[in-house]
Amino acid sequence: MNLPNILDARKRTDKKTEYIYLNEEYDKSTFSSKKYYLRTYGCQMNVHDSEEISAHLESIGFEKTDDLENADLVILNTCAIRENAHDKLYGFLGRCKHIKESINNNLIICICGCMAQEENVCKFIMEKHPYVDLVFGTHNIADLEKLLINKKDNKQNIEVYSCEGNVYENVKYHRDSNFKAWVNIQYGCDKFCTYCIVPYTRGKQRSRKSEDILKEVKELVKDGYKEVTLLGQNVNAYGKDLEGEVSFAELLQKVADTKIERVRFVTSHPWDFTDEMIDVIANNENIMNYIHLPLQSGSDRILKLMGRRYTKKEYIALFNKIKDKVENAAITTDIIVGFPNESEEDFNETLDVVNTCKFDSAFTFIYSKREGTPAAKMDDKVSLEEKEQRLYKLNEIINDYSLMNNQKYVGKTEKVLVEGVNDKDQTKLFGYTETMKLVNFTGDKDLIGKIINVEIIDAKSFSLDGKLKEE
Ligand code: SAH
Ligand code: SF4
Ligand code: F3S
Q1: Burial per residue of 33-66, b for 16 or more beta-carbon CB atoms within 10 angstroms, e otherwise
Q2: According to a count of CB atoms within 10 Å of the terminal CB, is the N or C end of the chain lower?
Q3: Which atom of ligand 2 has the smallest separation from the CA of 233?
Q4: Mean pLDDT within 152-161
Q5: What is the pLDDT of residues 285-329, one digit of tens each?
């Protein structure tokens, strides 16, 4: 039993990151014919962690199922970024409990991910959800096989470490797609924005060695993958924690040199975004002209309280520089409204940036208090109702600009990576342009996984309609 601890999670020492090359093989018959159901919440990092979790489970014989009631193991990979994540998890746990009591008494229920790294969550699970069998954290995913093999019947085990973290290599993934892949380049975060829980749940910033990243990308190219997304909380700080390592701009160039058809990266912080990075993006055809550049707020006062290390003016200058140099760049953002004591004036500053930058799209959030972060202690007199009104107003403006930007595509021919069949209309396929615009069009299923030309015939706020271009 190991419970997480917020004070330990905050610690940053000068201990060197360990690079651990996994090589253990497990007996596939251990859990043969057993099925696992995996549900993922949160960001791309969690989605990719779930691909790793799947591979660990399959190495001891589990098979994947989408049918919860038929599962022998349920595993919930959670997100802690906002408070409402808790309600979602506890709601779903109720369903699992019911299944365990009424359908399958041997069901193993397991919680992992960022919420597992929260002290209060683990305590709550111990007290109120004793039927949960196993809780493990973001630092010990690689121990999953051992944790399950050594599981004692009916005994709850919580194995969550609050540590700075290591880097694991030779990790296996059961990737969801056979044409686009996530590639971690860095783990954790040291920025400690005052509202954010991530540096506590994911540990310190640890870059993977560029040779290991390139080896992975080259294998993906060999296996026919068309697109890689380089993943990190602050990709532009890549390499800074590793002596002698290349910069993110250099890494990006090397990845582009592998001739993978498409490369993109998330997320880049506006701070540390170098001119060299912009040049590399501009000069390489296979680096997608899509950049996610979180703004969070347009008010200098709030940005300072958030610990974001840039001003409104600096953000806009960077935005314009990217737009000038990278042809047809699409820039999207994240915005938080209602940070503690955000005034109407502060909020108007945010709207001002939105009206200046006219983002392609934005993820917008109402500030959510995260226990243990510095902002949680800040005084806040603004009502939730006021915050909701601000969010509503912001979204209206954002959506207008999304539509306006999308309309510019009408009549153009775009390269689209075809991803699959449209959920709502089975006669249609969908895919993404190089600027990450969603396109729906009629076409044959054989096109899935290919990059094809699509003529854009109509634009909506959140998608484009297209027509297959005959070659
Ligand atoms: N590393 C990325 C962000 C990862 S979290 C970056 O710095 O850009 C994704 C988004 O969630 C953030 O950009 C922020 O807009 C939002 N977010 C994070 N903490 C939040 C909180 N406490 N309340 C509301 N939104 C939050
Ligand atoms: Fe959170 Fe800031 Fe790190 Fe992004 S940079 S993960 S917002 S602390
Ligand atoms: Fe959520 Fe953890 Fe990602 S808190 S947003 S899953 S890093």
Answers
A1: ebbbbbebbbbebbebbbbbbbebbbbbebeebe
A2: C
A3: 6
A4: 90
A5: 999 999 999 999 999 999 999 999 999 999 999 999 999 999 999
- Residue nearest (by alpha carbon) to ligand 2 atom 5: 191
* Dist. CA 57–CA 399, nearest whole Å: 41
**Nearest ligand for residue 45 CA:** 3
* CB 111 less than 6 A from any atom of ligand 3: no
Domains of the chain, first to last: 6-159 (3.40.50.12160), 174-407 (3.80.30.20), 413-468 (2.40.50.140)
Residue 464, SS3 per DSSP: strand
DSSP E strands in 267-401: the ranges are 290-292, 330-337, 361-366
CA distance 165 to 146: 19
pLDDT of residue 202: 97
Using alpha carbons, select from 197, 227, 216, 193 the residue that is nearest to residue 78.
Answer: 197
Q: Is 232 in the pocket of ligand 2 (CB under 6 A)?
A: no
- Atom from ligand 3 closest to the CA of residue 80: 4
- With a cut of 90, say whether residue 150 has pLDDT above it: yes
Cα distances (Å, whole numbers) of residue 221 to 178, 354, 450: 11, 38, 14
CA of 397 to the centre of ligand 2 (A): 25
* Sequence-distant (≥ 6) Cβ neighbours of residue 128 within 8 angstroms: none
Residues 6+ apart with CB under 8 A from 216: 183
Ligand nearest to the CA of 333: 1
The residues, any chain, with a CB within 8 Å of residue 169's CB and separated by 6 or more, are 19, 20, 21, 22, 208, 212
pTM of the full predicted structure? Answer: 0.96
For 242-398, list the strands marked E by DSSP.
Answer: 262-266, 290-292, 330-337, 361-366
Report, as an integer, the average pLDDT of 400-413. 98
Q: How far is CA 328 from CA 357, 380, 387, in A?
A: 14, 40, 34
What atom in ligand 3 is closest to the CA of residue 78?
A: 6
Residue appearing with tokens 């170098």 = 274
- Residue 470 pLDDT level (bands cut at 50, 70, 90): confident
Backbone angles phi, psi at 274, to 5 degrees: -90, 160
Q: Whose CA is nearest to atom 18 of ligand 1?
A: 196
CA 414 to centroid of ligand 1, rounded, Å: 31
Position 258, amino acid: T
Residue 196 CB less than 6 A away from ligand 2:
yes
